[in-house]
Write a structure and sequence with these properties.
Immunoglobulin-like; single chain; alpha+beta
Length: about 150
């Protein structure tokens, strides 16, 4: 066998092994882990919330920060974090203006005041997540985690 034939055989074998790994459960798991790591290194958004108002029925948060990647906005979701760390669903609505629901370009944003209700007895924090479509992948990012002191 000549050196040229050995190179061709080695290249063909390598490509075959790589393709086999990509379609195997191990390959799929490795790809998923790699994408999750990428999303941690390059998040879609980096935002935080501040407590504006709170009573026994509701909480109002102001959320602001940076959109870092060009991904399509899908939704926002609010939760109550309980003493044991469990998240419970909350209703959420923007109250300072009508929620546009549009996809924003990369940049710094104040996305307004958000009301979460009804307040769950025993809740220790109000938490909000936003969902984006990034090239066909669903990315869910925490945008607020506000301790409730009132």
């Amino acid at each position: 066998m000549s050196i040229s034939q050995l190179r061709t055989l080695w290249l063909s074998t390598s490509i075959g092994v790589l393709c086999g790994l990509l379609v195997s459960p191990v390959g799929v798991a490795a790809l998923s882990a790699g994408l999750a790591y990428y999303d941690e290194l390059r998040p879609v958004v980096r935002m935080s919330g501040q407590l504006v108002d709170a009573d026994h029925e509701q909480v109002v948060l102001r959320i602001s920060g940076d959109k870092l990647r060009s991904c399509q906005y899908l939704s926002i979701a609010g939760y109550w974090r309980m003493r044991d760390g469990t998240l419970r669903d909350a209703n959420e609505r923007r109250i300072d203006q009508e929620q546009a629901g549009d996809t924003k370009p990369v940049g710094r944003y104040d996305i307004g005041e958000w009301r979460l209700w009804p307040r769950e007895a025993g809740s220790v924090a109000a938490v909000c997540y936003v969902s984006h479509n990034c090239g066909g992948r669903l990315i869910v990012s925490k945008i607020a985690d506000v301790e409730l002191f009132r």
